[in-house]
Amino acid sequence: MRFLRTLGFAALVLLLVLAVAAALVIAVRADPGKAASGFLRGAFGSFYSISEVLVRATPLILAGLGVSIGFRTGFFNIGAEGQIYLGATAATAVGLLFPGLPALVLLPLALLCGFAGGGLWSAVPGFLKSRFGLSEVITTIMFNYIAINVVGILVRSVMKDPSYPLPMSPDLPEAMHLPVILEPTRLHLGLVIALVAALAVWFLMSRTAAGFRMRAVGLNPRGSLVAGISVPANLLLASALSGGLAGLAGASEITGIHHRLLEGISPGFGYVAIIAALLGRNHPGGIVIASLGIAALQVGSSSMQRASGVPSSISWIIMGVLVLLILARRPDRDRVAR
Amino acid sequence: MVVPAMLAMRDIRKSFAGVPANDGISFDVGEGEIHALLGENGAGKTTLMNILYGIYAADSGSIVWRGEVLGGHGPKEAIAQGIGMVHQHFMLVPTLSVSENITLGLKSRGHPFPDRRRLDTDILELSARYGLDVDPAAKVASLSVGERQRVEIMKLLYRDARLLILDEPTAVLTPGETDGLFRVLATCKGQGHSVILITHRISEVLAFADRITVLRDGARVATLEAAGATAAGLSTLMIGRELKSPARRTAPAASLPRSAAGDRAGLEARAISLRPVAGKGLQSVSFSVAPGEIFGIAGVDGNGQKELAECLLGLRIPDSGKLLFGGLPVEGLGPRQRKRRGLAYVSDDRHHDGLVLGFDLAENYLLGKLDDPRFVRFGLVDRKACLRGAGGAIADYHVKTRGPTEEVRLLSGGNQQKLILARELSSGPAIIVAFQPARGLDIGATEFVHERLLERRAAGSSVLLISSDMDELLGLADRLAVLHRGRLSPAYDNDGSLDMMRIGLLMGGQGMAEEACAS
User: Fold this and answer.
1) Is residue B348 in a domain?
2) What stretches of A237-335 adopt beta strand conformation (E)?
């Protein structure tokens, strides 16, 4: 009964989303058939297009996992975007400072520093919340502006490539490139890292005492306090892990795709990650699936733009509609009333 | 005598998620009648009244109110029809004045700029007529609980309610305030109003109601005249069996003679003071609880009880004073370390303090065992051990559930409290702080909670029982003291010599200063 209702709801959502998409395609006077085939070919049509979806999903999975740890602990991290930038900056700094190190040392060090950069950046709002009760929703958003613009300054000043007129860092050493796992595509080891991270987050949250404490704090801070679980300490831990995974996403983009720091390395991954966490119900498996779906939507819609002239921003509209529909049916609405 | 009923509810049915809360209840109220709706928690009293008041729609059944059929109405229509309800939790805006609260939402003459002075005069007139003593200009935040209740009643009378529904009105009142409330209700009755009194307190029903309808498990068991009813008969109707005799008298005496344990108190507080925040603080509170003793702290809610419990638990740090567990100071220790020193805490607020509602039973069991190597090793949770532990608790404490993987939110209040008791008491704690442990529970579950506390007393635990329910304290405590505005009276032995008059006065704050000086 419950299952059937969920299934019915999913069908309704799909129908509504398709209707919105069709309306938009017709509104811009494009050929719906051409648009649909362009979308499908772009997302699943070839080996290459599938690999592009996976490349796109990698940072979403990592940042989405980070966001989910925060959400489950009651730390509403809206700052994954800024944490991605900070992680990317930290990883780049490692490459610029120690260009001579062997790959086996340099690459893990860069990823680790990316994690640490994002984690520390996120731990500041975490500290402000646990110590002074400042709303992390506000502070993390503000921290996004700071982080993104700090990167803008860096790539124009100390980290700028002197031999190039555009604001970007020099190329990073070859030893710091994440290996491509599927030649000749761009698919890199970051995907494997993301999947391992999903497994690790699952294990942490559902099998360890630390994860149990964080979940307890997220569900009932007062009850946790009474049970002897420190709410501030767990908020701080969750904020650091949350930002750390987002930072790792940034480091993975630098070492896997761009191989240098530049403005706009993240076209809103940090915000889309929130949607991935929401659609995936904060469960690692769900986040992987949601990230793949969102990535397919985005990659497919840019292909649709090329094929039929429908603006790819349609993917954002569809995501917006999706989130609204999902929020309209929160499971806790069904609570038994007495 | 055949009086045409003012209100007639016929065969009301309502179920939640397939569970019937009202199973074909019929109920009527006459003009100028005080009709008590008696039953345990979960018997369906509040549901029935919420249907009458239009908060829920009945699945089936009919309501006839003064000759007209009522249906598909909301609270707004109910009030317009002359039906008013005072909820258990008051619906007042503390920052507004009494008269602003009373006229809130009404378009008085001159709206949106009514003549406040005229309204105040009207309200004064009304309060004089019903013997309700409230200052219309006072801010609600500055009123006592009893006064706030009067404001709620005024709100209904001002809206010309003919039928007043009061949901557990005496739960938050001192004995003196309770008498005052019933005087007001008697006046209302004299003026032709009818009153429905939702309660589980048999003594009040016998003293003040005209007729009594008893509900059990969502069905009406009986409707009878109060004049012919007896307490024993009513309690049998309510719970379907006879109540056991007062528990403490039949329990075995404490295993440790008090004199031997006297110099090594299990729990001792020496001059604990807490600066008042929002009027609630503690002033040099001292007491000691010997092993094998239940020490009761009486008093009306909101006089510093929660603050005291939180100081003991380590959630608040007193500004001065000393706390000793088994003779050793515990200053600077947080809740986790204090629990390791043998402290257990049973709260009235199961949903916030005791449980994580989104967790299942096994996880909630684990919540109190995070430092126990049987359940957590090397930072890893042994889920199987948790399931076994919770399974054992379910069996030992008769928790009614589908199993350890059921979410606790689906359990009834009594079963939730049993799970908390199982978790807190299974480790054999030396000190138990029980804060209103039976609040909101039905008679059966209350009995169960009391038996477990007496068991721990017999096993040598020091039990601090904080309660506003005098019956509970008289039944369980060896000694008791009264907390009023953050000050604790001297302790009295709970035996035949206890002067109830004196305790009642202390709860109202009278004689507190002299007592404190004398001690």
Assistant:
1) no
2) none
pLDDT (mean) for B6-34:
89
By CA distance, what is B345's nearest residue in A?
A226
pLDDT at A268: 93
Backbone angles phi, psi at A311, to 5 degrees: -60, 140
What is the tally of structural domains in chain B? 3
- Cβ neighbour number for residue A108 with a 10 Å cutoff: 10
**B254 pLDDT higher than 80:** no
B283 and B215 within one domain = no
| Final residue of a structural domain among B186, B209, B239 | B239
Please tell me if residue A230 touches chain B, with a CB cutoff of 8 Å: yes
pLDDT band at B253 (very low <50, low <70, confident <90, very high): very low
Domain locations in chain A? 33-329
Report yes or no: A225 at the B interface, CB cutoff 8 Å: yes
Q: Are residues B198 and B289 located together in one domain of the fold?
A: no
Phi, psi for residue A118 in degrees, rounded to 5: -65, -40
Domain that holds residue B455: 247-342+428-518
- Rounded Cα distance between B104 and B122, Å, is 15
Nearest CB among B353, B363, B409 relative to A226 is that of B353
Evaluate if residue B39 carries a pLDDT over 60.
Answer: yes
In a domain, B453, yes or no: yes
Secondary structure letter of residue A293 according to DSSP = H
In this structure, CATH architecture of domain A33-329: Orthogonal Bundle (1.10)
pLDDT digits (tens, 9 = 90+) for A240-281: 999 999 999 999 999 999 999 999 899 999 999 999 999 999
B352 Cβ under 8 Å from any chain A Cβ: yes
Mean pLDDT of chain B: 86
Structure tokens at B309: 């419990």
In degrees and rounded to multiples of 5, residue A188 shows phi and psi of -120, 175
Identify from A203, A205, A212 which residue to disrupt to test chain B contact, counting B C-beta atoms within 10 A and taking the largest count: A212
Low-confidence winner among A55-59, A111-115, B339-343, B510-514 (lowest mean pLDDT):
B510-514
